[in-house]
Design goal:
By secondary structure, the protein is α/β, with parallel strands linked by helices. Keywords: Oxidoreductase.
Length: 281
C-alpha cells in the first residue's frame, strides 16, 4: 500500500484519545475516513464533505456494526482499512473485579472488535485486499497489577489477531496488532475502578491504581506520533504484524520475550518429555 494513495479507513472510538488522533492524522494525509463514536456530537467537527463520513456506532451492537459498514460501503464504495480502537479500562485487582465488570471489558475490548471484523471482512475478502488494525496494549503481551481483566481482554484480541492473520494471508488481507504503552490520552483518567478495594492488595493493585491516576497528563507517549506511526506501518511496502508503540512498550515486550525464552529453554527437556516416546507413538 502506497502512503500517497487515497484509501478508505474505518476508525472506531474517535471521540477522544487514539481514535481522534488517528482520524485527524488520516484526514491530514488526504485519506478518506469513516469516523465513528457512540455520540456523534463529539466527532461532528471531523466531518469533511467527500472525505469524512461521521457515523454513530456502539461496537458492542453487532447489528449496528454491520449497518455502519454497509453505510460506509454505500458512501465510499470500498473499505480498505479497519482500525479497531474503541475500548475501555478498569482498575482493580483480579479478586476485586466482579463478573459484570469483567464481562463489560470483554464486550467492548474483545467482542466489539470482533463485531467490526465480522462486519468488514466480506467486502475485504471479495476484493482480496484490506488491512485490519487491532489496537491492543502492551498489557496484551504482559500482565500488570490492577488491570488483570483489561489485560485478559487484550490478550484475547491478540490471540484472535494471530489466527486471523493466518486465515486471511491467502486472501490478500493483512492484520496488524498495535501494542502501546502509556500515552497522553484520556484512558487512565476515564477508566472506572473498584469501589471495594481489598487491603491485602494495597501494595500491588492499590499502588498501581494510584500510579495510573498520577500519570494522567504526564504519560511519555505522544498520541499524535502514535497516529503517524500507525499510518506509516499500514502503508509500508511490508507492514509489520506487530507494532509496539513507546519506549516502555519496547522494554516490556523485549523483557517478556526474554522471560519466555529462559523458561522455554530451561524446561525444554521436561516439555518435550510430555509426548509419547517415538517407539510408543
Amino acid at each position: 500500500m502506497d502512503a500517497r494513495e487515497q484509501r478508505v479507513w474505518f476508525v472506531t472510538g474517535c471521540s477522544t484519545g487514539f481514535g481522534r488522533h488517528i482520524a485527524e492524522h488520516l484526514l491530514g494525509q488526504g485519506q478518506r475516513v469513516v469516523v465513528t463514536a457512540r455520540k456523534t456530537d463529539k466527532i461532528a467537527d471531523l466531518a469533511r464533505p467527500g472525505q469524512a463520513l461521521v457515523l454513530a456506532l456502539d461496537v458492542t451492537d453487532a447489528a449496528q456494526c454491520k449497518e455502519a459498514a454497509a453505510q460506509a460501503l454505500a458512501h465510499f464504495g470500498q473499505l480498505d482499512v479497519l482500525v479497531n480502537n474503541a475500548g475501555i479500562g478498569y482498575f482493580a485487582a483480579v479478586e476485586e473485579t466482579n463478573a459484570e465488570q469483567a464481562r463489560e471489558l470483554m464486550e467492548v475490548n474483545f467482542f466489539g472488535a470482533a463485531n467490526m471484523i465480522h462486519a468488514v471482512l466480506p467486502s475485504m475478502r471479495a476484493r482480496r485486499s484490506g488491512c485490519i488494525v487491532n489496537l491492543t496494549s502492551i498489557g496484551g503481551i504482559s500482565g500488570f497489577e490492577a488491570v488483570g481483566y483489561y489485560s485478559a481482554s487484550k490478550f484475547a484480541l491478540e490471540g484472535l489477531s494471530d489466527t486471523l492473520a493466518k486465515e486471511l494471508a491467502p486472501l490478500g488481507v493483512k492484520v496488524l496488532t498495535v501494542e502501546p504503552s502509556g500515552f497522553r490520552t484520556e484512558w487512565a483518567g476515564s477508566a472506572n475502578e473498584t469501589s471495594t478495594p481489598i487491603a491485602d492488595y494495597d501494595s500491588t493493585a492499590g499502588a498501581a491504581r494510584r500510579a495510573y491516576h498520577a500519570s494522567v497528563g504526564k504519560q511519555a507517549g505522544d498520541p499524535r506520533r502514535a497516529a503517524a506511526a500507525i499510518f506509516q506501518a499500514v502503508t509500508a511496502e511490508r507492514p509489520p504484524r506487530y507494532l509496539l508503540l513507546g519506549n516502555e512498550a519496547m522494554e516490556v515486550g523485549m523483557a517478556k520475550l526474554e522471560e519466555m525464552r529462559t523458561d522455554f529453554s530451561g524446561w525444554e527437556q521436561v516439555s518435550r518429555g510430555a509426548d509419547f516416546p517415538p517407539n510408543e507413538a
